[in-house]
Amino acid sequence: MKIKVINPNTTWTMTEKIGAAARAVAAPGTEIVAVSPSMGPVSIEGFYDEAFAAIGVIDEVRKGEAEGCDGYVIACFGDPGLAAAREIARGPVVGIAEAAMHAASLIGNGFTIVSMLERSRATMEHLVHAYGMTHKCRNIRMTDLPVLELEEEGSNAQAIIIEECRRALTEDHADSVLLGCGGMSDLMALITREIGAPAIDGVSSGVKLVEALVSLGLGTSKRQGYAKPIAKPYTGQFAPFAPVA
Amino acid sequence: MKIKVINPNTTWTMTEKIGAAARAVAAPGTEIVAVSPSMGPVSIEGFYDEAFAAIGVIDEVRKGEAEGCDGYVIACFGDPGLAAAREIARGPVVGIAEAAMHAASLIGNGFTIVSMLERSRATMEHLVHAYGMTHKCRNIRMTDLPVLELEEEGSNAQAIIIEECRRALTEDHADSVLLGCGGMSDLMALITREIGAPAIDGVSSGVKLVEALVSLGLGTSKRQGYAKPIAKPYTGQFAPFAPVA
Amino acid sequence: MKIKVINPNTTWTMTEKIGAAARAVAAPGTEIVAVSPSMGPVSIEGFYDEAFAAIGVIDEVRKGEAEGCDGYVIACFGDPGLAAAREIARGPVVGIAEAAMHAASLIGNGFTIVSMLERSRATMEHLVHAYGMTHKCRNIRMTDLPVLELEEEGSNAQAIIIEECRRALTEDHADSVLLGCGGMSDLMALITREIGAPAIDGVSSGVKLVEALVSLGLGTSKRQGYAKPIAKPYTGQFAPFAPVA
Amino acid sequence: MKIKVINPNTTWTMTEKIGAAARAVAAPGTEIVAVSPSMGPVSIEGFYDEAFAAIGVIDEVRKGEAEGCDGYVIACFGDPGLAAAREIARGPVVGIAEAAMHAASLIGNGFTIVSMLERSRATMEHLVHAYGMTHKCRNIRMTDLPVLELEEEGSNAQAIIIEECRRALTEDHADSVLLGCGGMSDLMALITREIGAPAIDGVSSGVKLVEALVSLGLGTSKRQGYAKPIAKPYTGQFAPFAPVA
Amino acid sequence: MKIKVINPNTTWTMTEKIGAAARAVAAPGTEIVAVSPSMGPVSIEGFYDEAFAAIGVIDEVRKGEAEGCDGYVIACFGDPGLAAAREIARGPVVGIAEAAMHAASLIGNGFTIVSMLERSRATMEHLVHAYGMTHKCRNIRMTDLPVLELEEEGSNAQAIIIEECRRALTEDHADSVLLGCGGMSDLMALITREIGAPAIDGVSSGVKLVEALVSLGLGTSKRQGYAKPIAKPYTGQFAPFAPVA
Amino acid sequence: MKIKVINPNTTWTMTEKIGAAARAVAAPGTEIVAVSPSMGPVSIEGFYDEAFAAIGVIDEVRKGEAEGCDGYVIACFGDPGLAAAREIARGPVVGIAEAAMHAASLIGNGFTIVSMLERSRATMEHLVHAYGMTHKCRNIRMTDLPVLELEEEGSNAQAIIIEECRRALTEDHADSVLLGCGGMSDLMALITREIGAPAIDGVSSGVKLVEALVSLGLGTSKRQGYAKPIAKPYTGQFAPFAPVA
Question: Gene3D superfamilies in the record, alphabetically (chains A, B, C, D, E, F) (predicted)?
Fold first, then answer.
């Protein structure tokens, strides 16, 4: 099975970290292809960044279909481009926010999301509501650290995140914590150990959920909303993306 | 006041129709600039089309800020690019699905959406949920007509739509009907007359809501989720879209 | 266009303030008629006051229909009499709580209401739920000031309110603040400036929404729940209010 | 114990029927006082009628407090004046829509409301939502019969209602039916027998719930939203209703 | 009327306290039978305990049907076995969490639950959601006291609980407090007096609600989900519980 | 990895079918142990059956912990005993209703459940609500076939089920169908082929989700609600089930 893990931003140090997290949990027969799009933002911190990242995600899924990919993980905690990607993928496509929330739902009663810049809170609130997780989400805690701080040597980002995760357990009565950024995907084991409760990484969760769906023979449903895009012309720089019959 | 009405698809016959609907309701001092992006799908029928349309919308809002636009209407019933556009606009940005739902909420107890291709039902369900309109939305009725059918001479699309609007009143107990496509923006008066109840067009509703907000001195809040995008590099073909400080 | 702005309480200093706020935003061709009912409570602080205020509102709408009013704003943050008023108005009727919540929804992700006496919290919770704004409302902050304190010279009510608005932004992560009382309608500009984020006044919002709806040709739907009251006898002191055919 | 059952309309044949239903279930020591207000609509079919009926209800509760009443039932399926009445009552106040929905929740999984004029559907939708009964309410079925039809000799209203109740069981999968009008309070036993499932009358349910609360020593909470109205002047014809300290 | 009050745990000192609370409010003609099952946990603190307690509850309801019981109260704040018990009871079955929440809904706008071990929070969150009380429940406050602490001489559990109830009023803006454990059923009067607001005990509430339903002729609906269990074999130690035709 | 798949009823022909479905999708290194409890109902059709089945499930999980099982699937579409089982399992426990709903959420916008006896509708409504899937569930279609009909030779149950699945797509606009009974676990491939859209079996979905969670190192969270049961005595026939420290 071939799963493409798409880091929707173009910071390859993060892509490598994400790829490593994916490979660490992949089943023996699973090939992980970890990529960043050839275009778009170096980090995703808001709806504007997400809109461009979505095109990059779509581009990688388009290529992935030609490359024989069986499924996809969108490795940014805003799940950019998820619905669009589902229209063009035969197999399943899972976002890491979605993956982490579903995983948390299966092992506990309520989770808290711990994430980065305050401004991204709105994205997460939107996803929690859209995924029907309102009564599962105890809190959203933003550390107000920039995403790329996680890539810095000598940063005390880890310590700040761990402290916030601890508060999630004691103050929010959460029984798990979601690591709300693709760049945290190397921290799952460490934080789980530090706080004594599950710290859930969406990247590894996403890989395992895609593996599960593919093994079940379940691809994205082609009835209704995720049917193949209708063939039509696209103009200008997006002409190459026009759906064909 | 200068309001840019953006038809997110690139079919200019529809853009002209939308522009005419906007101008028909605009206040004396309001200048309507009706445009289509220079790139993207000729019609929007699903999430994939929407993702590309969102970039076109963003591009027009970026230009609009330089052109001194005071507000924006996104004239596609899936409201593509709305959240991203809000980050870069000082003034208000309103989508036509959002505008129509808010207008309906102020004049009645429950609306039905009447729209085009069955596959777009998912988009509308998502918006109804996201906007908190679940208990206001009586039904979503898809005629399964393609969007561009509305641009065809001799089409019986109007008759089919009117019939569906009638059913909304009698079968769904709706007290208004939302015209679920920018391409229906010329039908508001006709259908209202035919069915004897408000048929609400989002384009004209959107123009009046933007005028209202601008007159109130209310632009998009720059606290939290719709703050100006953070300056950062974008790579590849999106480099020109990189936010600057 | 003629819009009647009804202050549901009988304190005319407040009515004048409300009228001024309305006129300050009204379009050139809009005539604002600001009134208080000839009967009812001097301030509205609870459900009991609201029940009587509702009759006053109805009385003013009845007269307004005879006077050729095109629309109405109910200028108390509990929106008393709103549904009843809609049955007898041809044009739109908007309450200021409703108006402020809709305006906030169009320019941000989440608002906090800042209002007066603690006891009115229940009214606001009820309205937030009824209007489908649960996931938009970050908090309701009651200052526990009496409504008429706002009419007092030398009161420090403004300072208290501004402080609470500031907390809404930092503690609730709200991106706008709703001024939860008709008597705050002169504070919109001041508070917006002080807190650096939109402080939304329902009176001015209501006027602009009514103008918008009237310009769209949208009156209250006469299908279903807001149809004209059925002609029937009323007994006792309410006989003059009996609906006629 | 003395319970005042208030028929909010002024049709005394209905008041007598309601009083009889109340007395039929009252405990030995319970005195039922069944009244109609001295003012207001002869029947309640919409929000406008309800606004006036609310004042009549309030008037009767005010008198009731002086008369030593221990609790109140508001015998109209729109529960007019309920919140206001709670502010002035020491004891409990229960509306019949509320009572019927709570009773149904305790004996089954889902109910359907069967009621009269189509235009009142909006009231019931509002109450179902406000009371948190959305997931318990299977359907609202309006027979489109006027309320006073139930008082007519030779009417086939009963047959129509019974037929609709039967459909509630088979088509809506309801396990109980709520009789959605005070004027149906004599039909509980008959319809239960005819359809072979509980047909719940709010009047008798309300009496028993009030008895239960009074026996528990539970009156309306005087903390927060239902505290005693604040003393203040009322002007005009409502001056006699002004709250006193 | 004969009401069986089932303490689902096997600690008879608690059963006696519960029985006393039930008898204290029962109507003259009501016989209270207070029992504990002959098997199961000595206290109920979590889902595992509840699963076994449910069988004990069922056993007591089965016997109760043979003994001519008219209704049942399940006297543990997790309402264990409620749905199953309803299938085999002709009369009504009410859980004390359910009873307390319904009672609170009829006398106020919002309640806080005050209960025992932190680990039981999940059960209460689940019930609040399942009963549609999300917008009525202001908070759930766990004192982290073990259930049997309430049975200890010299414990300061009462003082801790009262303090938490006070906070519910001032910090949560609740207007009533639910005593979230059958073992608190003797504290209703004391705490109500101490905090000056209703402290609602589910045991006494449950008895009065069952009395009310029985007096109304309302038993558990035998249509749909609570129909009599289908006759079928049960194997092993549960063979004696097999439903018969 | 060792996964125990528990058919909560005691009909071993169904257990074998379920075991086969589980093995068909299990990863190479996964050992499937398919069992039925030694006690309990032969089929599960209602809440009463579920209560007993829950004890059987618990018993098998208890044994499973001693046997070194890494995770569990509860193979009845009412997910009996799920929360209790989670308290005693170190690894993950997944119910098949839960598993099917989560899988459907990841590949489509809305599902319909197709299941057996009408009386079980209430269980499924409860689960949809409890799992936060209300806006994902398009409909619940009960065929009114008894569960064991699926084990009968020559039954036309399959044809009836397939027909209902087809209606789910065309009438409910579902994009997938959930097979609402463990006894349908052999029909996933057949029905998917017949209807041309995903027919999701919870047994195989559950196995893959448990495999995924175990591979991620995620067991049931032992913080809060699913912590290990507190050591305490159990009396009577349940004494052997008493939790120990």
Answer: 3.40.50.12500
Are C235 and D10 within 8 A, CB to CB? yes
Residue D201 to chain F, least CA–CA distance (Å):
23
Is B2-95+204-241's fold the same as B97-202's? yes
Helix (H) or strand (E) holding B83: helix B82-88
CA angle at residue B74 from B72 to B75, to 5 degrees? 125
Residue D154 has pLDDT above 90, yes or no: no
Q: What is the mean pLDDT of residues F207-220?
A: 98
Chain F residues 167-226 with CB within 8 Å of chain A: 169, 173-176, 188-189, 192, 196-198, 200, 204-205, 208-209, 211-213, 215-226
Q: How would you list the strands of the sheet with A2-6, edge to edge? A: A31-35, A2-6, A71-74, A93-95
Task: Out of B37, B55, B88, name the one closest to residue A55 (CB).
Answer: B55
Domain locations in chain E as residue ranges: 2-95+204-241, 97-201
Among the partner residues C38, C51, C224, nearest to D55 by beta-carbon distance: C51
Judged on CB neighbours under 10 Å (0-12, 13-18, 19+), F104 is buried
Total Cβ atoms within 10 A of residue E29:
11
Q: Determine, for residues F215 and A223 on separate chains, whether the beta-carbon distance falls below 8 Å.
A: no
Determine whether domain F2-95+204-241 maps to CATH 3.20.20.70: no
For D9-32, the pLDDT digits (tens) are: 999 999 999 999 999 999 999 999
Where does the pLDDT of residue C116 fall: very low under 50, low under 70, confident under 90, or very high at 90 and above? Answer: very high
- Rounded Cα–Cα distance for residues B147 and D184 (Å): 50
φ/ψ of B94, rounded to 5, equals: -130, 135
CA-to-CA distance for B58 and A54, rounded, in angstroms? 13
CATH number belonging to domain B97-202:
3.40.50.12500
In the structure, what pLDDT confidence band is assigned to residue A68 with cuts at 50, 70 and 90? Answer: very high
CB contact under 8 A, C221 and B211: no
Give C116→chain E minimum CA distance, Å.
15
In chain A, residues with a C-beta closer than 8 Å to the C-beta of C134 are none
- CA-to-CA dists, residue A101 to A134, A178, D32, F243, angstroms: 11, 7, 55, 31
Range F51-77 average pLDDT: 98
Q: How far apart are CA E191 and CA E169, in angstroms?
A: 12
Measured distance CA(A194)–CA(A197) in Å, rounded:
8
Tell me whether chains C and F touch (3+ CB pairs under 8 A).
no
CA distance to partner chain C, nearest, from residue E168 (Å):
15
Instruction: Report which DSSP code applies to B230.
Output: P
- Round the average pLDDT of chain A to a whole number and report it: 96
Per-residue pLDDT at C153 = 82
Cα–Cα distance measured from residue D224 to residue C141, given in angstroms and rounded to the nearest whole number: 14
Q: Is the ipTM of this complex over 0.90?
A: yes
pLDDT-based confidence at residue F24 (cuts at 50, 70, 90): very high
Residues of chain E in contact with residue F40, where contact means CB-CB under 8 angstroms, are 234-236, 238
Residue D34: strand, helix, or coil: strand
Instruction: Report DSSP state, residue D229.
Output: P
Question: Does D244 touch chain C if contact means CB atoms closer than 8 Å?
Answer: no
CA atoms in the 13 A half-sphere facing the CB of F230? 19
Question: Which class for B170: exposed (0-12), middle (13-18), buried (19 or more C-beta within 10 A)?
Answer: exposed
- The whole-angstrom distance between D226's CA and the closest CA on chain E is 7
What is the per-residue pLDDT across A176-198, written as a single tens digit (0 to 9) for each? 999 999 999 999 999 999 999 99
Close Cβ partners of F243 (under 8 Å, ≥ 6 residues apart): E48, F88, F228, F229, F230, F231, F232
CATH class of E97-201: alpha beta
Judged by average pLDDT, the poorest of A120-124, D181-185, E43-47 is D181-185
**How many cross-chain Cβ pairs, D to E, lie less than 8 Å apart?**
150
